[in-house]
Specification:
Blueprint (H helix, E strand, L loop, with lengths): L6 H19 L3 E4 L10 E7 L2 E13 L4 E2 L2 E5 L4 H6 L4 E7 L4 E6 H6 L7 E5 L3 E2 L4 H17 L8 E5 L13 H12 L5 E5 L6 H9 L2 H6 L4 E5 L13 H11 L11 H17 L5 E5 L18 E6 L10 E4 L5 H12 L9 H10 L4 H13 L5 H9 L4 H4 L1 E2 L2 E2 H11 L2 H10 L6 E3 H8 L3 H13 L4 E2 L5 E3 L2 H14 L2 H26 L13 H24 L3 H10 L1 H6 L3 H18 L2 H17 L3 H18 L2 H18 L2 H18 L2 H17 L3 H18 L2 H17 L3 H17 L3 H17 L3 H17 L3 H18 L2 H17 L3 H15 L5
Parallel strand pairs: 3-6, 11-14, 11-15, 12-13, 13-14
Antiparallel strand pairs: 1-2, 2-3, 4-5, 5-8, 6-7, 7-9, 10-12, 16-17, 18-20, 19-20
């Protein structure tokens, strides 16, 4: 279904169309500025006289509708455009379209702002200044006069450096990568019609180098037989007065186009006319030229200079998106790939440099430079200048975030200096939001997170982010509604933030952010646990919650650490605890331990004993997963003792279940049985179905591993209804899997396999990859019992690959032991011996002595020749 055109949009278009028609009927050249760029201007008008361009251009803001009417005329809101309208290279005029009378009225916005000490909120548009067929010539004459007076009143300190490339020239052999972008620009320039390209990107990303490489390509030089003309427009010089203006550009451009000096007119108007006639003559003679305007900050610098003949080409480079005019294709340049970064360093240092023979540190250096060509080039220059400096030494200097931008400085080239110019060229109203975004601890963020930091609505935030992206200070992120700030830009913004925004403002912004993360991470965690809240819930499925956590995990972890460090302990605890299940599902055990430890530190700062118990329990669970069983048992005993001392029954249940699981692995399953019986007793007293189900499932596993199969079946079967009552599908899957193993050992193969299928269904529903592969291992155990050796091998190899890739060494060793049994049963004792010995080595390395003894016993039994 096509999108509806709203009434307000129709009214806006009516005003733009009426003004455009009037101007074009009087031979003025009008182009619309891309509506996606919120620069406060709608039309770009190049003024003509007697059919020739005059070199004078203006921008026009058009407003339509009743809300701009006033008792004695009309008014145009200034909003955040005061600086742009007052100080831009082009004067900005405002036009109001009265929908009822279909009339146009105008005011000189730039003149009004220049004459005001303080920027007004609205600028009046008097009824006397109607713009129509009778007044258009007067309007044009007044505009010409204002532009000339404004130009004369400004000190022209800028200079324009123009060079001409012609004949045969070769591309730089030291240029790295960008093959896709090179091809795209060549295609745009060599295809008839169009031939207008804007290459944009952040400071130091290599825009000029890319364009230089393209224009030197044989295909491009063949098309533009008249040569390539390169003009540096100084748009991003440290001082705005050095920016090249159209009025001073015509003379140097005419000179390189071959016009003798004594034939170049003295006035800008005469030069503009001759410039375009010269280009037209080259077009007619079949000698088109390619105009390259480098370092363009504003469209006003080049709009009058763009060739009008279609045979000619034009390439612009800018840190800004420029509010692109009609007919210009865009290429936005990003940083190099990790591989390209390494090649660039190698080329600058020279392949003979012995320091390049350490690929690990080279990769780390490229990462700390953010794969930004400017930063990489500076790093390489530092290394080349100091032959005694090792890459590890430079890494140590760059690893300190607060001083990284100090290190990335060589001679008169510095990353900070380049970024400072980008900030200076940024509209004043955008500087504060740019700095505030660095309060977010990660360089990629959602619009919701940015909204919390900035303290404005999401729609307002989106508009601000879009404007910052036009300045190439941020870019689109890895998913919809996400934005990314380059790591070095983030560091620079943080420096600025510390000096321009008060500590209390920064703390309030960060507190708002952590509140957003607390609520969203809670909703995601509850969804993963099978108990989503909200109507409707924020996440409608496990997949949605996992996808969100995949994107936000690093930000949540960084926010929790930062919150802990500045004593926002409640947020630090909550965010860390909300990550535990997710990290377990993703097999990120070490990160799970770190999150639990942060939660514990926050709980201790708060002196909240219940929270300490919950955090200690999760520390113990993660230590158990890592095979650090003695540490786990000690931690869980501590949790149990605190819980008992304060009468925290829920915490006692959790600690007892987790302690039983750790003792089961470290000592023996039989030693865990009394602990888990006590856990069942406590959980029944607590009347929490989740606790009852968890304690019964763990007790059933201990019974099964102790050979008490009937007790195991009873405990596991009785746990399943409790898991269903609590909605914990993950625990239910574990119960089904354990029951399947017990039934298989009792010889009830059909019921066993039904249980495994139930477990697979539940594990897949919650996307528990570890559970799925543990289930494959358990299924293989039953398959071996029923003589299905081939099927068991397939299940075990699948489980083994997963456990090896996620460093779950306990289960890796168990899988190897079962593969040993499978090969022993098939008669391949040599292969079986290999599997058993590898399993023994792993159990010894991770300190599981009981499992090591059991595996050695199985190996001795096989070698003695007894049947399996």
């Amino acid at each position: 279904m096509p999108a509806r055109v709203t009434q307000s949009r129709r009214i806006e278009r009516a005003g733009v169309n009426a003004l455009r028609t009037l101007l074009e009927d009087h031979d003025q050249i009008v182009q619309e500025i891309d509506g996606g760029n919120d620069y406060g201007e709608d039309l770009f008008v190049m003024l003509t006289k007697d059919g020739e361009r005059t070199g004078v251009a203006i921008a026009i803001q058009v407003k339509s509708g009743d809300k701009y009417k006033r008792a004695h005329g009309y008014a145009i809101p200034v909003d955040g455009h005061a600086n742009d309208w007052k100080n831009g290279l082009l004067p900005v005029l405002g036009v109001v379209f009265d929908v009822a009378t279909r009339k146009l009225f105008w005011a000189n916005l730039t003149e009004c702002l220049e004459s005001s000490e303080e920027a007004p909120s609205w600028i009046a548009v008097p009824r006397e200044q109607e713009l129509n067929e009778d007044t258009i010539q007067s309007f044009l004459a007044l505009t010409h006069k204002f532009v000339e007076a404004r130009s004369q009143g400004r000190i022209e300190e800028s200079s324009l450096h123009v060079t001409r490339l012609s004949g045969t020239f070769s591309a730089s052999p030291r240029f790295v990568g960008r093959k896709q972008e090179q091809q795209a620009i060549r295609d745009m320039l060599t295809t008839a019609g169009g031939r207008r390209v804007l290459v944009s990107g952040m400071a130091g990303v290599g825009k000029t180098s890319l364009v230089d490489q393209v224009v030197r390509h044989h295909d491009v030089s063949t098309v533009f037989s008249g040569g390539v003309i390169v003009a540096d427009m100084h748009g991003f010089s440290a001082h705005r007065t050095r920016m090249a203006r159209p009025g001073i550009a015509y003379g140097p451009l005419l000179s390189v186009l071959g016009v003798p000096g004594d034939e170049i007119p003295r006035t800008a108007e005469g030069q503009a006319a001759l410039y375009h006639r010269t280009l037209d003559a080259l077009d007619a003679s079949g000698n088109p030229v390619l105009m390259v305007f480098d370092n363009v900050a504003e469209l006003s610098q080049v709009a009058e200079l763009l060739p009008r003949g279609e045979a000619h080409g034009a390439v612009l480079t800018s840190r800004s998106r420029l509010g692109v005019l009609e007919g210009i294709e865009r290429i936005n340049l990003d940083c190099l790939s990790p591989e390209e970064s390494g090649v660039l360093l190698t080329q600058i240092l020279g392949s003979g440099d012995q320091r390049l023979h350490t690929p690990g540190p080279i990769r780390d250096l490229c990462t700390l430079c953010g794969h930004l060509p400017l930063a990489l080039s500076i790093s390489a220059a530092i290394l080349k200048d100091d032959a005694d400096l090792t890459i590890d030494d430079l890494l140590a200097e760059l690893s300190e975030e607060k001083s990284r931008l100090d290190v990335l400085h060589f001679g008169d080239t510095a990353v900070r200096a380049a970024l400072q110019v980008s900030l200076t060229r940024l509209d004043r109203a955008m500087r504060d939001p740019f700095c505030r975004l660095s309060i977010h601890p990660g360089s990629e963020m959602s619009e919701q997170a940015a909204s919390a930091v900035l303290g404005v609505s999401v729609p307002q935030t989106r508009s601000l982010l879009r404007r910052l992206s036009h300045a190439s200070l941020i870019s689109r992120g890895s998913a919809a509604s996400r934005w990314r700030m380059h790591d070095l830009v983030h560091l620079f913004a943080a420096e600025q933030c510390e000096t321009t925004i008060s500590a209390s403002d920064r703390q309030q912004a960060f507190s708002r952010l952590t509140e957003v993360y607390c609520q969203a991470s809670l909703n995601a965690d509850l969804t993963l646990r099978g108990t989503p809240e909200g109507n409707p819930p924020q996440f409608h499925s496990t997949t949605e919650a996992l996808n969100w956590l995949d994107l936000e995990c690093a930000n949540l972890q960084a926010s929790a650490r930062a919150a802990r460090d500045i004593d926002l302990t409640g947020q630090a605890y909550a965010i860390s605890m909300h990550l535990i299940v997710y990290l377990d599902l993703r097999g990120r055990v070490a990160e799970g331990l770190q999150s639990a430890q942060i939660a514990y530190e926050a709980a201790r700062k708060e002196r909240d004993a219940e929270r300490q118990v919950r955090a200690l329990n999760n520390i113990g669970i993660n230590l158990t997963s890592q095979g650090r069983l003695e540490d786990a048992i000690r931690t869980l005993k501590k949790a149990a003792a605190i819980a008992e001392r304060i009468g925290f029954l829920d915490g006692q249940c959790d600690a007892a279940v987790s302690l039983g699981a750790a003792v089961r692995q470290h000592v023996s399953p039989r030693a865990a049985i009394p602990i888990l019986i006590e856990a069942v007793k406590l959980s029944r007293e607590n009347r929490d179905p989740n606790d009852i189900g968890a304690s019964l499932t763990n007790l059933g596993s201990a019974y099964r591993e102790s050979g008490l199969l009937h007790q195991a079946v009873a405990a596991l079967s009785s746990s399943i209804p409790y898991h269903r009552a609590s909605g914990n599908r993950r625990q239910e899957a574990s119960a089904h899997a354990g029951l399947g193993v017990a039934l298989g050992q009792l010889g009830q193969q059909e019921k066993s396999e039904e249980c495994f299928q139930e477990a697979f269904t539940a594990y897949r529903e919650v996307q528990d990859e570890a559970g799925i592969h543990l289930n494959y291992m358990n299924l293989a155990h039953t398959q071996l019992k029923s003589g299905k050796i081939k099927e068991a091998r397939g299940s075990l190899h699948r489980a083994l690959r997963f456990f090896q890739s996620t460093s779950r060494h306990h289960f890796e060793a168990n899988s190897l032991g079962l593969l040993g049994a499978a090969e022993w049963m098939s008669g391949d004792t040599d292969q079986a011996k290999t599997y058993y010995e590898e399993a023994i080595r792993i159990f010894r390395r991770i300190g599981l002595k009981e499992s090591e003894r059991e595996m050695k016993a199985a190996l001795r039994e096989m070698l003695s020749g007894r049947p399996s």
